Amino acid sequence: MRSAILSLCYILFTFASAAVSSEIAGQARVIDGDTFSIRKTRIRIAAIDACERDQTGVKRGQIWPCGIEARRSLAKMIDGRHVRCVQIDTDQYRRLVGQCFIEGDDIGLRMVKLGQAVLLLRYLPATHPLDLNEYRLAEAEARRLRHGIWAARVEPPWLYRRKASRDASHDVWPN
Fold first, then answer.
1. Per-residue CA distances from 84 to 41, 148, 150 (Å)
2. How far apart are CA 28 and CA 40, in angstroms?
3. Residues 52/118, Cβ–Cβ less than 8 Å
4. Among 13, 17, 111, 164, which residue's Cβ finds the most Cβ atoms within 10 Å?
5. What percentage of the chain has pLDDT greater than the value 70?
6. Please, which residues bridge with residue 23 across strands?
7. 3-7, 110-114, 131-135, 152-156: which range is least confident on average?
8. Which residues pair with 44 in a beta bridge?
9. Up-side HSE of residue 39: CA atoms within 13 Å toward CB?
10. For residue 33, which of 111, 92, 91 has the smallest C-alpha distance?
């Protein structure tokens, strides 16, 4: 009888803890086009990838600062405002990865719709709550309408980061 009660308690605890998601809410401070902080917690918006702050592309024959533009778009949307995030994961840099909302709207989805971010799905855990079909449709529509990065020649942010880290590791400083 005692082992049955302990087993039942274990099962209930396991399911109850799995059903409770970690959330964080508060005033947002934008860092770049897909990262911000609430208090001292850095948050990476799940499923999206925006240009890095120093990244540029070419738009209408001119150098276009896509990283600055992505940060500006996110800041206009959330900087200094109350944001709520549901934690999906923690990334390799120990940032909380979350689906984040402002006034009920999915921030990542809005960035994709604006063409200020592309989908980055490969790092999502299998148990994520995102409606990926909605994200894919939003990206296809932004591309069709040539919003943001879709109106420019821009290296994918993940590839830009990889090249930048490889180049930095080969820098040689003069003596």
1. 12, 25, 28
2. 10
3. no
4. 111
5. 83
6. 86
7. 3-7
8. 35, 97
9. 7
10. 111
Residues in the chain: 175
Answer for the pair 98, 36: CB distance below 8 angstroms, yes or no: no
pLDDT over 90 (residue 157): yes
Q: How many CB atoms lie within 10 A of CB 174?
A: 3
Residue 118 has what DSSP assignment? E
Residue 90, CA atoms < 13 Å, CB-side half-sphere: 6
Residue among 136, 49, 135 at smallest CA distance from 97: 49
d(CA 171, CA 165): 10
| pLDDT tens digits along 25-80 | 999 999 999 999 999 999 999 999 999 999 999 999 999 999 999 999 999 999 99
> Residue 38 in contact with residue 81, Cβ under 8 Å?
no
The Cα angle at residue 42 between residues 41 and 44, in degrees rounded to 5: 140
